[in-house]
Amino acid sequence: MQALVLGDRGVRFRTDVPVPELEPGWARIRVRMAGICATDLALVAGYKGGYRGILGHEFVGQVEDAPEHPEWVGRRVVGEINIGCGGCERCRRGLAKHCRRRRVLGIWGHPGAFATYLALPVANLHPVPPHLPDAHAVFVEPLAAALQILEQVSVRPDTRAYVLGDGRLGLLVAQVLAQTGCDLLVLGRNPDKLAILDARGIATVSVAGEVPEELLAAPADVVVEVTGSPAGFQVARSLVRPGGTLVLKSTFPGGIDAFDVSGLVVDEVTVVGSRCGPFPPALRLLARQAIQVEPLIQRVYPLEEGVTALEDAARKGVLKVLLRV
């Protein structure tokens, strides 16, 4: 089959990759469309200690084979990316995404979605509504990640919330938080990206250099850092009030330079790492068009031009790049 494979010398498009074998309770899915995200680009740059294999974890596809679950054959699906061992305490408590022996689609120990086929447990699959286009359904995984914030942090209409970052995920996070009716402001560097939110009535401010003093003087209850940059942490920290919550969404190679840990203690700031989230509400929001993703799509490439697509997605200012398989 065809696939985009990350190796020691970078990413290559290959046509000789074996079709994935099925484990008990699994399904083989023909990929229809996949999305490139910041994590894919970070993996190419060395994130997670050097993943090697087929990239990609945002996808929509069609089940072609599920020996133990024939009722799934032919269904269009999206899939949760974490594969727990199923037997440890964390898996038994419903925390498979934190299983110590977990595999993660296209990220850690399991071949990803930038390929003709992928394999996942049927338990990871969610059917896609018939009227939801592939190009919208492919946003389910990152939208679920945005929704995870509301699973972890209380955001009410009287909450002042700042979103720091106007990239692919940042635009989804902003739309999710806007659903709560909170006092929301999005800080970014790209006026064209911020205009997508302006058109939806979401307040934005372009911050090309230093954060305006008036914002520093009015820190937020909740600050979501989704810049994709180590420097974003320090800026986000300066914008959260004492007793407030700092939500970290960015993943990138390396770590964060030294910062004032004691300041977090003194100000009693809660720091929340936020990762994968719930698929069903993401599907419902997309099906109702409550979250707009069409303006986020920059370009669509065929899989065989995937190397070029990855290079394009890594360029500054580029939004969502999709692969048609």
**Helical percent range?**
25-40%
In the predicted model, the low-confidence regions spanning at least 5 consecutive residues are none
Instruction: Using the CA coordinates, give the radius of gyration.
Output: 20 Å
Structural class: alpha/beta
CATH C-level name of the largest domain: Alpha Beta
Query: Could you tell me the number of beta strands?
Result: 19
Strand portion, in percent?
Answer: 25-35%
Reported by name, the CATH topology of the largest domain is Quinone Oxidoreductase, Chain A, domain 1
CATH superfamily caption of the largest domain: Medium-chain alcohol dehydrogenases, catalytic domain
- Tally of helical runs: 11
How would you describe what is shown here?
Helices cover 26% and strands 29% of the residues. The chain has 325 residues and is an alpha/beta fold. Strands 3, 5, 6, 10, 11, 18 and 19 form a seven-stranded mixed sheet that branches. A six-stranded parallel sheet has the order 14-13-12-15-16-17, with helices on both faces. Strands 2-1-4 form a three-stranded antiparallel sheet, with no helix packed on it. Helix 9 links the parallel strand 16 (240-248) and strand 17 (270-273). Helix 4 (140-152) packs across helix 10 (279-287). The mean pLDDT is 93.
Features:
alpha/beta, 325 residues, Quinone Oxidoreductase, Chain A, domain 1, 11 helices, Rossmann fold, six-stranded parallel sheet, 19 strands, seven-stranded mixed sheet, 2 domains, 29% strand
